[in-house]
Amino acid sequence: MSAEESHENGRPEPNFRPSSEPHIEVRSLQKNFGETKVLTDVNMSIGRGHIAVIIGGSGAGKTTLLRILIGLERPSSGSVIVSGQDMAKMSDRELNRARRKFGMVFQYSALLDSMNVLDNVAFPLREHTKQAEKDIRKQVTEKLNSLGLENIEGRFPSQLSGGMRKRVALARALMLEPEIIMYDEPTSGLDPVTSRMVDDLVVETRKNFGVTSVIISHDMLGALQIADEIYLLSKGRIVASGSPEELLKGEKNPLLKQFLESSGVTEMSSVKHKGELSQ
Ligand SMILES: Nc1ncnc2c1ncn2[C@@H]1O[C@H](COP(=O)(O)OP(=O)(O)OP(=O)(O)O)[C@@H](O)[C@H]1O
Ligand SMILES: [Mg+2]
Asked: What angle (nearest 5°) sits at the alpha carbon of residue 264, between those of residues 262 and 267?
């Protein structure tokens, strides 16, 4: 039995090595809204502990796919298998329980402005557990500290920088110890320097908490730096997928080429290593 399997709730141990064992599998997924086909024949296999980036232009179907992955929306056909369980076959009640496996970091952090940091981060614990206030506060402080935030429990979101808000949102998403963290456009609205800090935070979080990460993004440059696998979504279809290295080799694919070029990755063939992209 591997270390991953031996962990009681199926979560891998911190500081583990990512594995190719699939954690999330999407098979022949289709989603229609009335006559409109929004997702067509989407197939994905995201390894446990991997960082997967789903990238695509506006209207490509990214948010719809994310909502299906976390069980907020049901597919029209096809399946979403998480840790071997098919979410599409679950009853509403089972689906509600399965949703606890996911932590969400929403676009623009989505912190509640009227609540201070303590109350924002404590929110999931107060909603889903019956723990004593003293224990809740302790866990909030521990989680904030583990993300490099100290003594900010009393501050309001408006008193934080964009990067700090992201960390607070991440602390909140991690409170129920999810197996999978979903980030919706984590770098949109941030300057390039803060965007790279958020990318680093995603990588750190994977290392420290052993989570599988799924990122919805427009940011190809960031994706190439941190992803284990990238899925390029266009008009509801995956038009290219693979590791950053594989994608950079796929310049014959016109849609991929266009996306890489519009993201400023122009001299693709001269780029050999991920790290060189930032230079
Ligand atoms: N509930 C719905 N009913 C009907 N059509 C919908 C619904 N939700 C999404 N769509 C349509 O599905 C398509 C994909 O939408 P989606 O929000 O998933 O795109 P997106 O890739 O997240 O775009 P953006 O980058 O602008 O957020 C769009 O054409 C949208 O109009
Ligand atoms: Mg969207």
From this structure: 110
